[in-house]
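--- STAGE predict ---
source: upstream dedup step, 1 unique chain passed
mode: sequence only
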Amino acid sequence: MKELLILALVLTGSSSCRQGDEKAGDAYASLRAAAPFDMPAFAAPQFPDREVTLTRHGGVGDGVTLNTGAFEQAMEALVAAGGGRLVVPAGIWLTGPIVFRPRVNLHLEKGAVILFSPDKDLYPLVSTIFEGLDTRRCQSPISGHDLEDVAITGEGAIDGNGHAWRPLKRQKVTESLWRRMTRGGVFKRADYWYPSDSYLKGEQASDMNVPRHLTTEEEWAEIKDFLRPVMVNFVRCKNVYLQGVIFQNSPAWCLHPLLCENVIIDGVTVRNPAYAQNGDGVDLESCRNAIIVNSSFDVGDDGICIKSGKDEEGRRRGAPCENVLVDNCTVYQGHGGFVVGSEMSGGVRNIRVSNCKFLGTDVGLRFKSRRGRGGVVENIYAENISMMDIPTEPILFDLFYGGQSAVEALESGDRQAGERLVPPADETTPAFRNIFIKGLRCSNARRAMFFNGLPEQKIDRVEIEDAVITARLGAELKQSVHVRMKDVTVHAAEGPALILHDCRDVKITGFHATVTGDAPKATLSGTLEEVDLGDSFRAGEIADNSTK
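--- STAGE serialize ---
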């Protein structure tokens, strides 16, 4: 009786439901209809018309009081009544981890900021998947496992206090910021700072950010500082909805739906400092049916990234990321605008990216993997993409990915590694095929495009139509087959506008090239078979050093 009385005091509303975005009907029907594959219909989850306000459970939004208990009690009360909306009013709500319950919409009103505490003792080690591998990390600030109907909506902001977790590279920040942020902690070298000895020890025990071969609790505890969590982590959830909120300053990746079904991300802003290592915007991993629209990303790593597990573990898990629509999104700073990989061992298929802008990202459309991954990436469609100020390429396929950003790889020459030894293709060999790009505009790139395929399994069937690219260097295609280009214009300030090397079955029509000085408009080299340049080049405009 006492419990019923408490619920009556804190809950309002009726048994009727309200949609997470409070819109009727299928708001994404036209987007789904335009998909060149069968995109299942789904909408934002429905929630009971019932509210709990955080302040009714002792919450204090003064930026000092710890509200972990208030969030937990409010969640419990709401779920006991059958779900609804947990309202966070204006204020700064300092808290430890928030663990979601089913049928709950965490709603941030105007002026509301959820600020996660920098006290790492509040974030225990948990089993999870990070960078495609089974491992352990600190508990995510926001998490939910095996739930249906969860949402984060509103007009507020969520801050992960990431600067308390992350290391720092000196070359990525100003001298004044470097001095301010590197008080305390330890140094790997004079230009690389870590928050603690525990962090440095963790990196030394890790392979690409994931510790290997640790067997005891003591070993894990010794490197806890290194195990930075992703900020928002929903795992094996169905009907996930993120709308309107600012997500910023995450310890590692910002948004990480993992093995989820029916995910909608609409109208969010994701912000991380440009120097934030592993500061990805959204990593959609092994999810089925997802929509990412009307959102902006300004981050320290990849902006919108599609993943599906890494190497043998990813192949064994066998959970592809499939049926994804990305529309009307903007990526500013970031290592890639739209990215697939490098953890794609479970497969990626049926993705459409449309009407997006990439403004200053290191790469525009970035496809990356390496030997050992396995997996198949196929049926990727990009339409009406605008880019400017791209330090590397607007279109990049790099099958020699070594863990660096595209800019770092360019500086170190890492993209060219591994060509001397050609193993046979097997289940560990990644495959990228059936990728279609139409309606692309790019101003001010370093190189128009770069295809860097594997000799044993070339990039297979890429079609580019209606593209205009202005770059310092032209397009370079290596180890690719079944390539089609139609009505592509490349303005190259240096060298040829097109380079083909070790390619087969290439057909180009309507290619328009402008080059500087006496540079050839096209250069052919290596072993080429079935190359048809149509009438795109006149006699004397091609430097042919190929073996046919």
